[in-house]
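BUG: 3D viewer hangs when loading the predicted structure for this chain

Environment: internal workstation, default settings.
Expected: structure renders.
Actual: progress bar stalls at 90%.

Input used:
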Amino acid sequence: MSGHSKWSKVKHQKEATDSVKGKLFTKFANAIIIAVKEGGGMTDPNSNFKLRLAIDRAKSINMPKENIQRAIDRAKKSDKDTEISEGVYEAFGPKGIGILIEAATDNKMRTVAELKNILERSGGVLATSGAVSHLFNQVGLIEVKKTGKSYDKVLENALEGGAIDIEESEEVYNIFTNPNDLHKVREYLVSVGLTIESFELYFKATSEIEISKKEDIDKIEKLLETIEEREDVQRVFANYKSHV
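Structure tokens produced before the viewer hung:
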């Protein structure tokens, strides 16, 4: 779909080995910790929407319940010296594509140094704040399984529920909402019988750079994969469109 990169979702990575699963569990534990902190210590996912999103994403990779609970407990009693903080780093990649990198880290200097090295090895560069973020809008994204549902019917349901846009991909309908309406629209879609594949807050590109050469696409995708494999990195968004 337009503006939607497969690198935006950790669950779409290559098949997880034990070591990869360990990294994923760390990523999602950090997301849970941040959600609790940003929610003022609220540990009830029904009252803390960001925590609910983090837990749902953790469950999507079969993260055990005890791991999820440990992350919540850690957030409640974390030491200031080992606090995890969230940040969005901006970068330019090969062919001038814009990249947003969501990270959760207990050492910002280490994270910045690692990202800088990865980017520079692939012809990219870290950018100043605001240089790339204006190329994206934050929206809610709900993936709805097709399961025999027509585009027109899902579009009707989505608009009735308060969505702002819908796009069709091979396997799902991608429904976009205002960030604050994500939960409300999701609940409505469930109430009318649609099957939700996933839902999340998402950075959607407002304009895309078209890439037509396979070698350029391979270079970009290798860079994005390398960035996302870093334990500190939560998600990666890029504004390129492949034509190969």
